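Hey, weird one. I pasted the CBS domain-containing protein sequence into the form twice and got a warning about non-standard characters only the second time. First submission, copied straight from the form history:
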Amino acid sequence: MIFDVREIKRLRESLGITQAELAKRVGVSQSLIAKIENGKIDPKLSVVKKILDELTTLMEINEYAERVMRSPVIVATLDEGVKEIVGKMEKHGISQVPVVNSSFELVGIIYDYVILRKLAVKSPNEISVKDILAPLPPLIDPKTPVREVMKLLTKYSVTLVVDKKLKPLGIITRSDLISYLINNNKGPQ
């Protein structure tokens, strides 16, 4: 799922801070915050990360990853083809798919941008899962505090919630976390 930067406005407002306050905290102009919130510009990822990091530091949340995670996790297997995987991603509106082995243990993750790079030089039939398999993102326990998840998601686009045998229980993206915070009115306590 792709994060819409215009969601920053809803999150900022739920925290009760102004554009000017947020701009000062992040070290940018108020007009830049306004343009980002209104979708008038496509900001650098580094700016979005700074904004989200600042907004999340204003929150006091006493909940755990299991409350935020999306489950069940849509996964791919090592024997699936690229066309099947892309079809799965399109069907579910996701941009990454964890990959499991025959024991349903995580072995890696496939990101849409990696598939795109490979398709630029090879046909889908020439690409195997191993060609597009990336290392696993951070793995967390269901009882990981949401504040820790927030910190991870300022650096990574996704984190996976797993059991002790590395079997996926849930997935959390930045968009999932922001939607959860907005929909549950989590603000400064």
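That's the output from the first submission. The warning seems to come from a hidden character in my clipboard, not from the data itself. The two ends are 29 Å apart (CA to CA).
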